[in-house]
Amino acid sequence: MKRRLPKEFYARDTIEVARDLLGCRLVHRMPDGRRLSGRIVETEAYLGADDPAAHSFGGRRTARTEAMFGKPGLSYVYFIYGMYFCLNVVTAEEGIPEAVLIRALDPVEGFRQPTDPRAAAGPGKLCRAMHITREHNALDLVTSQTLWIERDQIIAAHEIIEGPRVGIGDRHDAVHWPLRYGLAAHPALSSAKFPTD
DNA sequence: AGCCCGATGTCCT
DNA sequence: GGACATCGGGCTA
Predict the structure, then answer these.
(1) Tens of pLDDT along A107-146?
(2) Side-chain-facing half-sphere of A191: CA atoms under 13 Å
(3) CA-to-C1' distance for A85 and B8, Å?
(4) How far is the CA of A130 from the C1' of C7 (A)?
């Protein structure tokens, strides 16, 4: 497990973590031992108490958002629109409620053959494809035997594209903050367009 | 290629 | 009771 990302990876500036997660491998070991994994191709940063789009805006701390206030490297999984889950990883130092939403994966292990390259092209689809649910909230990705992230591909800065945020309405100007990152021209990006497409 | 809408449960006011 | 860090289908063009 020497490729697993250590706590120090997550305990950094949230935007850096969001960019550096591109190319890393999300792994879920299921109860039956089957491995599901994929490479991260799209992320989005949520900048805590100062970010109008974040669940933790204004320091809001509830049962739902509790994981965001926890140690860096925790998962934060929430339920949305009555039928989807979304997976985040908690960043920055404990008590600072920042996180990175994992928005899309390139499927690698455990997917049906022939694999749909867009099976995890979006935060809701990703959790459905990876069998990630509310049970996976607040897991420690640094030590968990169920869910973790590994180093995989190294991504050059020029391969990273930035885009506006998604699905957060017109709250303030936060929509326009370029906090969404993706691998240029990758087929597994979510359907939310980047300006450079 | 784009807009609109329904599905469907939970959270917060 | 309204909004929601979504998705896919059906519509218009």
Answers:
(1) 999 999 999 999 999 999 999 999 999 999 999 999 999 9
(2) 5
(3) 13
(4) 16
Residues 79-138 of A with CB under 7 A from strand B: 79-83
Which nucleotides of strand C lie within 7 A of protein CB? 3-8
Whole-model pTM?
0.96
Closest CA to A96 of A59, A142, A150: A59
Burial of A63: CB neighbours in 10 Å, binned 0-12, 13-18, 19+: exposed
β-pair partners for A45: A100
pLDDT in tens, A24-78: 999 999 999 999 999 999 999 999 999 989 999 999 999 999 999 999 999 999 9
Rounded Cα distance between A158 and A184, Å, is 9
Place of tokens 């879920």: A28
